[in-house]
Amino acid sequence: MKKFVFFLIILIAIVFLIYYFNTTKKSQIINEKIQQSEEINTKANIIKNVSYTSKDNEGNEYTINASQGEIDYSNTDIIYLTNVKALIKLKNSNHVKISSEYGKYNSINLDTIFSKNVIINYLDNKVNSEYLDFSLERNSMIASKEVVYTNLKNILLADVVEINIETKDTKIFMYEDKKKVNVRSIN
After folding, report:
1. Nearest to 102 by CA among 85, 122, 77, 126
2. Are 135 and 125 in contact (CB under 8 A)?
3. φ, ψ at 74 (rounded to 5°)
4. 18, exposed or middle or buried, with CB in 10 Å at 0-12, 13-18, 19+?
């Protein structure tokens, strides 16, 4: 009887060890597959040397280039850009050039958010800011955060510069009524 109990304990131990090693090995294989899948997915949504060009109904052309783009998994219409340069070729006006370190591009409506070291050049005007909301739907560019607007005669410091893309009408203002736009003459 003692031999039978001893044999039964050994048999249970062997079955337990086989089960343990088998499930551990499967778990390791599954974890490795998940890790490989995540590595593939994070690499698959990055695009080098991105370029998008579009035209509106009036014939205005919008081109955006970036050294890198990353597609948003939760919304594939959104692409996060790095080292961004945009050129807006207006049919009946001069071109507008925009550059920034980062951008967020919507491939459906073509709206783009530019951020960090934003520079806008159009006609004889230059706008530096940390944030720019560019919208073809609204037909506007709204620069904010540390805005410096420079033209041939003046340098203006403000909270916001809003530019109508088509007419070039420009609004420059502060968020608070008590604060004033700082204007300095270049000459």
Report:
1. 85
2. no
3. -75, -25
4. exposed
Q: What is the Cα–Cα distance from 181 to 100, expressed in whole angstroms?
A: 24
Instruction: List the one residue out of 72, 14, 17 whose CA is nearest residue 47.
Output: 72
CATH of the domain spanning 46-185, picked from 3.40.1160.10, 3.30.70.1730, 3.60.60.10, 2.60.450.10: 2.60.450.10
pLDDT (tens place) for every residue of the chain, 187 residues total: 666 666 656 657 665 556 555 555 445 544 554 454 444 444 457 788 888 888 777 777 888 999 998 888 888 888 899 999 999 887 777 788 999 999 999 888 888 999 999 999 988 889 999 999 998 888 888 998 889 988 888 888 888 888 887 777 888 888 887 888 777 888 7
Domain residue ranges of the chain, discontinuous segments joined by +:
1-44, 46-185
